[in-house]
Amino acid sequence: MRAPSVPLILRTAHGPYFFNARTLLRIDAEDKVARITTTDGQRIVVLHPLSDLEERLCCGQRIGDMLFARTHRSCIVALHHVQAVDLERNLVLDEQLVAPMSKRAWRS
Predict the structure, then answer these.
(1) Please, which of 18, 50, 54, 69 could form a disulfide with 29 given CB 3.0 to 4.6 Å?
(2) Which residues are CB-neighbours of 103 under 8 A, at least 6 positions away?
(3) Domain span at residue 25?
């Protein structure tokens, strides 16, 4: 697997979009596309399945100070942005954004 390039180039309905991997907070699966939430609050739909993004971001492998993980079957989280874990095992990314964590992901 290769490290995510900066910028990470992904397809959108409007053409290629350049993402800085450091600005990604979470990625949610929506059918055959994914919705990316960034640190500046943008929510952008990309035409990639979650499995493709999981490979591109080298989920589960540390890349410098970044670490992305598939925390749920429908979610990838930038663990380097996690601030806390709440009582329901959700990952707290900021005051308004939490991400789910499956029982399997919690164990690993």
Answers:
(1) 50
(2) none
(3) 8-80
Per DSSP, the three-state class of 80 is: helix
Scan for tokens 């970044």, then name that residue: 66
In contact, 3 and 68? CB cutoff 8 Å: no
Task: Report yes or no on 40 lying in a domain.
Answer: yes
Give, for 43, the enclosing helix (H) or strand (E). Answer: strand 43-46
Residue that the structure tokens 């806390």 belong to:
84
Separation in Å, CA 57 to CA 18, 24, 61, 103: 14, 10, 9, 22
Amino acid residing at 88: E
Is residue 1 in some structural domain? no
Q: Residue 76: which of 95, 61, 96 has the closest Cα?
A: 61
Q: Structurally, how many domains does the chain consist of? A: 1
pTM of the model: 0.85
